[in-house]
């Protein structure tokens, strides 16, 4: 396989075939992210992509899923992206689902018919970083979209029949806007009603603008219980019809996996017990990106 740069994939795609079809991220402006600062965004050549699919067909017959790396593969023009999916169908017929990263820009560029066409040829899930439902925070971290755009594009993906996994960031708004960030994030999650929500705890990455703000004393890092309180508020204000809300990423202090709405009250009680010191939190040295 022809891998370049720093490969990023969602935790749930750990056992998937990682097919790198783009390099970097088409947005690449978020102040907290250092994943793609090494180079400009580009789409890899069709020849290399097809060669990697052929390699996967020979060597990865046990994997049932494919994830298209890197950031925001959905931005690939429709004809080229469809060609990739059709080739996966042809050469890897055992694959049951293809996943991609997406952002509001790439979703907006696709028509509903185009999204449904991608769905018909195997695109089963899109992962999108919401980070926050608070417009002030979204603007501050240069996310490139406000909460209304997030809601519109999230609903669009779901209407096309493609499952949606949203990521939110605990601690991204700082102390002053923590409660607003939490409540607004719950509001937006409820409005989109995705199949999956993943809450990650902010970990500062050297050389990013947010890290530099922290070094200059402009951005505080949350203490564990502050992070938990924010998680509780988000959780309390999130209402999903049947989504899975998890906070079991390596960055989190308290592993949570809750089926909504069934586990909502039980999970709030769990967080309260952790806040009261009745449950041990993950030590700082065991947290990771």
What does this structure look like?
The protein has 289 residues and is an alpha/beta fold. The chain has one domain (11-286): Aldolase class I (TIM Barrel, Alpha-Beta Barrel), CATH 3.20.20.70. Helices cover 38% and strands 17% of the residues. It is built from ten helices and ten strands. It has helices spanning 46-59, 78-91, 104-109, 112-120, 135-140, 147-159, 178-192, 209-215, 224-236, 264-275; strands at 17-20, 22-23, 42-43, 65-69, 97-102, 123-131, 163-170, 196-201, 244-246, 257-259. The strands form two sheets. An eight-stranded mixed β-sheet has the order 1-4-5-6-7-8-9-10. It has a two-stranded antiparallel ribbon with strand order 2-3. Helix 2 (78-91) links the parallel strand 4 and strand 5. The radius of gyration is 19 Å and the shape is globular. It starts with 16 loop residues before the first strand and ends in a 14-residue tail after the last helix. The model has no long low-confidence stretch (mean pLDDT 93).
CATH domain class = Alpha Beta
Termini separation (Å)?
24 Å
Helix count from the secondary structure assignment: 10
Task: Indicate the percent of residues in helices.
Answer: 25-40%
Shape: globular
**Total number of β-strand segments?**
10
Which structural category fits the helices and strands?
alpha/beta
Radius of gyration in whole Å, from Cα? 19 Å
Q: Give the strand order, joined by hyphens, for the main sheet.
A: 1-4-5-6-7-8-9-10
Largest sheet features: 8 strands, mixed
Uncertain regions: pLDDT < 50 for 5+ in a row? none
- Give, in order, the helices and strands: EEEHEHEHHEHHEHEHHEEH
The CATH homologous superfamily corresponds to Aldolase class I
- The CATH level-2 architecture is identified as Alpha-Beta Barrel
Number of domains: 1
Strand percentage lies at: 15-25%
Mean pLDDT: 93
CATH fold assignment: TIM Barrel
């Amino acid at each position: 396989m022809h891998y370049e740069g720093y490969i990023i994939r969602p935790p749930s795609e750990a056992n998937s075939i990682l097919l790198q079809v783009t390099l970097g991220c088409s947005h690449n402006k978020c102040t907290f992210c250092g994943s793609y600062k090494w180079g400009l965004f580009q789409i890899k050549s069709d020849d290399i992509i097809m060669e990697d699919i052929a390699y996967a067909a020979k060597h990865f017959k046990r994997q049932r899923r494919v994830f298209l790396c890197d950031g925001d593969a959905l931005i690939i023009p429709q004809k080229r992206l469809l060609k990739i999916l059709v080739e996966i169908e042809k050469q890897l017929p055992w694959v049951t689902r293809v996943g991609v990263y997406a952002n509001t820009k790439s979703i907006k560029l696709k028509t509903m018919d185009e999204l449904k066409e991608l769905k018909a040829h195997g695109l089963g899930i899109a992962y999108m970083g919401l980070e926050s439902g608070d417009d002030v925070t979204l603007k501050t971290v240069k996310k490139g979209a406000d909460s209304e755009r997030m809601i519109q594009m999230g609903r669009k993906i779901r209407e096309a029949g493609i499952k949606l996994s949203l990521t939110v960031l605990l601690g991204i708004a700082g102390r002053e806007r923590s409660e607003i960030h939490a409540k607004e994030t719950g509001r937006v999650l409820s409005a989109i009603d995705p199949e999956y929500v993943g809450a990650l705890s902010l970990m500062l990455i050297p050389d990013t603008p947010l890290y530099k703000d922290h070094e200059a004393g402009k951005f505080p890092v949350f203490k564990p219980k502050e992070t938990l309180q924010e998680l509780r508020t988000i959780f309390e204000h999130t209402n999903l019809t049947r989504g899975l809300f998890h906070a079991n990423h390596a960055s989190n202090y308290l592993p949570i996996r809750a089926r909504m709405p069934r586990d909502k009250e039980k999970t709030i009680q769990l967080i309260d017990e952790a806040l009261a010191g009745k449950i041990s939190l993950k030590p700082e040295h065991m947290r990771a990106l």
